[in-house]
Amino acid sequence: MTIERSGEFIRAWRDDDHPREECGVFGVWGAADAAALTALGLHALQHRGQESTGIVTYDGGRFHSHRALGLVGDAFSDARVMAGLPGTAAIGHNRYATTGGTVLRNVQPLYADFEFGGLAVGHNGNLTNAHALRRALVRRGCLFQSTTDSEVFIHLIAISLYGTVVDRLIDALKQVQGAYSLVALTTEALIGVRDPFGVRPLILGRLPGKDGARHGGHVLASETCALDIVGAAFVRDIEPGEIVVIDDTGVRSIKPWAKQPSRFCIFEHIYFARPDSIVEGTPVYEARKRIGAELARESHPPADIVVPVPDSGVPAAIGYAAEAGLPFELGIIRNHYVGRTFIEPTDQIRHLGVKLKHSANRALLAGRRVVLVDDSIVRGTTSRKIVEMVRAAGATEVHMRISSPPTTHSCFYGIDTPERDQLLAARNDVGAMARIIGVDSLAFISIDGLYRAVAGAARDARRPQFCDACFTGDYPIPLTDQSDQPNDRQLSLLAETR
Ligand code: SF4
């Protein structure tokens, strides 16, 4: 666990045994109450980032913004704040910092004035050549205001010699590498972009019409749960490598890249997306139940009950229990309020660790052989404490089943994972991991089992459908900032923009 303080914001009790969600984006064009709709959409996407949030609106004459550290409900509950965000167009962003610290200047949407007018940008993902680009841009005299990778978009657009904002954006996008789903707001349009591999999700929705109007404007969002909360209908996924430009005339699609196979993040299905969302045409809850069932088919020890590690392990545990023919029981109760507390922990209570977040339901666990189902193990620290807690509650055997393959590699595409040497599965085989965590047995779903559950067929190594790099090390997008010679290529790309 880490505790970080930034200004008035104290983030307490992070869970180190899961990768952390990245960011969520939302945008509206052509709706009377754009800021309120955006705040609702961001609230539905709160699971994708809890450190900071922001909204930028455009009222036909001026841009307005409010950005804050903390949760959406706290940032946008004041009527005066909302009154300061007029306009029929807005974009919003929830952030978990995958790069840059948690300070107000890093909170998105980022905004800048250009000769063509204002531009606001919200970015979900992570650029893999941001450091190289930043060095090159600084050398050219660009003054960075934040420490986020996303700010390179602003500077690349600023130095582009193309005329229109969309052409400048395309010029900028052709220089970046990495994962990005963007929402951008100009004086003339709402723009949505997905990187050529489609690593992060982005969808298009349509609001219902009022007073006889055919429809009430368009919405862009990271997940369908954000459409549901504002009553918008799902239209379609933004395609990998697609730019959509939404204005009063409708939706225009631009595809500046040659089509290539998508590599959507498979961890969205396992853990990141909200269970009631539909991602890439697949209901997340159903996919997680299928993953649990596949896990049970691959390995299920003799046991009495199946217990999820809440909340994220629940759908997989339901699928596991049904397939294994075992009772599903809530043997661990999660306290939902701890992770959002503003308590500053003392050394005395910090060591209580996992008990602040999870407690054992003794009446269910005592005397039972338990299968614990969780979605991932990163460092193993929380898993070990949960196993200790379940044993202390009287379980006679504890078997752990994980609904993802072993996390052996770090993510560089917008998910916060530790360095590789901190990943338990990078340093230990499954037997050693079982001993460290203290379980009677440990098993992970296989990569083929995961693909079968999510996509209906085993992984084809020649044409994997997803990014699965944290399990396989097969990174679909170059990790330029991790290599020793990143600069020449980036500098030559920049030189071409002159
Ligand atoms: Fe998702 Fe893992 Fe790929 Fe990151 S490395 S995008 S978490 S599958």
SS element count, helices: 18
Would you count the extended β strands for me? Answer: 25
CATH superfamily of the largest domain, please? Aminohydrolase, N-terminal nucleophile (Ntn) domain
Shape: globular
- Report Rg: 23 Å
Class based on secondary structure composition and strand pairing: alpha+beta
- Which strand-content bin applies to the residues? 25-35%
> Which consecutive residue ranges, at least 5 long each, have pLDDT under 50?
1-16, 340-344, 485-494
Helix content: 25-40%
The termini sit apart by 47 Å
Instruction: Provide the number of structural domains.
Output: 2
User: What is the CATH C level class of the largest domain, in words?
Assistant: Alpha Beta
Main sheet specs: 7 strands, antiparallel
The distinct bound ligands, ions and cofactors come out as: iron/sulfur cluster
Report the CATH topology name of the largest domain: Glutamine Phosphoribosylpyrophosphate, subunit 1, domain 1
- In the CATH classification, which architecture of the largest domain applies? 4-Layer Sandwich
Describe the structure.
With 498 residues, the chain is an alpha+beta fold. A hairpin with a 3-residue loop joins strand 9 (178-186) and strand 10. It has 2 domains: 3-263, Aminohydrolase, N-terminal nucleophile (Ntn) domain (Glutamine Phosphoribosylpyrophosphate, subunit 1, domain 1), CATH 3.60.20.10; 284-460, Rossmann fold (3-Layer(aba) Sandwich), CATH 3.40.50.2020. It is built from 18 helices and 25 strands. The relative contact order is 0.13. Helix 1 (34-44) packs across helix 7, helix 5 (151-159) packs across helix 6 (165-173) and helix 9 packs antiparallel against helix 16 (447-455). It has a 7-stranded antiparallel β-sheet, with helices on one face. A 6-stranded antiparallel β-sheet has the order 7-8-9-10-14-15. A 4-stranded parallel β-sheet has the order 19-22-23-24, with helices on both faces. The structure holds iron/sulfur cluster. The site of iron/sulfur cluster (SF4) has 11 residues, from helix 17. Iron/sulfur cluster (SF4) binds at residues 199, 265-267, 411, 413, 415, 467-470.
